[in-house]
Amino acid sequence: MSTDTSKPPTLEEADHRAMLDHAFKGKPLDPEVSRRVHERAEKVREGMRARGVKIDAVELIRESREEL
Questions:
Q1: How confident is the model at residue 68 (pLDDT cuts 50, 70, 90)?
Q2: This prediction's pTM
Q3: What is the DSSP string of 38-51?
């Protein structure tokens, strides 16, 4: 992420900042930000699956978080 403050952040950079603020400062996370981040993550997982990358550990972690 760029530290150049002369231009407005991209949507992805803004989402990244919001996720960091949520994770480390406890700020509430906008549902739209969460949706976009989850969509991006799913695209990455699909790309990994298409290349045959094994992601069983990731799936187990996701499943354990859903049970909470």
A1: very low
A2: 0.63
A3: HHHHHHHHHHHHHT
